[in-house]
Amino acid sequence: MDTDMVDWITSDGLVAYPDAVEEMERRAAAIFSGSEDEAIWLLEHPPLYTAGTSARISDLKDPYRFPVFDSKRGGQYTYHGPGQRVIYVMLDLNRRGRDVRAFVEQLESWVIDTLDTFNVKGEIRPGRVGVWVTRPEKPPLPDGTPREDKIAAIGIRLRRWVSFHGISINVEPDLSHFDGIVPCGISGHGVTSLVDLGLPVTMDDLDVALRNTFDAALPLSASA
Fold first, then answer.
1. Can you tell me the distance from the alpha carbon of 108 to that of 114, in angstroms, rounded to the nearest whole number?
2. Cα 106 vs. chain centroid, distance in angstroms?
3. Given 55, 112, 184, 194, which residue is catalytic?
4. What is the pLDDT along the chain (224 residues), one digit of tens a residue?
5. pTM for this one?
6. In 65, 116, 137, 169, which residue has its Cα 20 to 30 A from 151's Cα atom?
7. Hey, which residues does 193 pair with through a beta bridge?
8. CB-based contacts of 206: which residues, under 8 Å, 6+ apart?
9. Residue 103: Cβ-neighbour burial (10 angstroms; 0-12, 13-18, 19+)
10. Residue-by-residue DSSP string for 56-113
11. In angstroms, rounded to a whole number, what is the distance separating the alpha carbons of residues 89 and 167?
12. 179 given a catalytic annotation
């Protein structure tokens, strides 16, 4: 096995959330044992909400709208559904440096570099997880600061220093589906997508950009 390989997997159709979690856990164990390569899994889910380890029940505004799954990833409530690219990252931090903060920053950089492919400026905000875009064409917030909308969410879990769960980027989901939760526990800001920003980006376009920007954003450590 070439230990420098990352296996890129793309699933057609909609993948049930419990099935995805089961496969991620299986693959993470195989990566740790050395029997399988690291993997990036690109997929879509049917409409659902997931609750991370920091989720507050008060942030679940419409608990009967879609199925709700407890998730052991970090973070709070998030939405997954058709038109959103879910990117599950099963990577071995034993080979990439055992630094969780640096790893999350690398994932953020990967999203930002990918969005830059489409001339979208993604930004990070202290105290607000995920990747955001400024919306100067929209009315400012009550305190006068510019409106910002979230375009990507990040939430990971580590087991024996192998990551799973990961990233979601909004390509063309039904943005009204986010109304049933307070996304990631953050009020006062909205949610956007590439198509909502006026960009005719397809899922295939995004997948190509993700692959092209991966190596620079998430390099192997020098000791790997």
1. 10
2. 12
3. 184
4. 333 589 999 999 999 999 999 999 999 999 999 999 999 999 999 999 998 888 888 889 998 899 999 988 877 889 999 999 999 999 999 999 999 999 999 999 999 999 999 999 999 988 777 899 999 888 888 888 888 999 999 999 999 999 999 999 999 999 999 999 876 555 667 899 999 999 999 999 999 999 999 999 998 865 55
5. 0.93
6. 65
7. none
8. 85, 114, 169, 171, 194
9. buried
10. -GGGBS-TTTS-EEE--SSSSEEEE-TTEEEEEEE-BHHHH-S-HHHHHHHHHHHHHH
11. 8
12. no
Phi/psi for 74 (5° steps) reads -70, 160
One-letter amino acid at 208 equals V
Residue type, 204: D
Q: How many CB atoms lie under 10 A from the CB of residue 100?
A: 14
Structure tokens at 32: 């740790």
In whole angstroms, give the CA distance from residue 160 to residue 144: 45
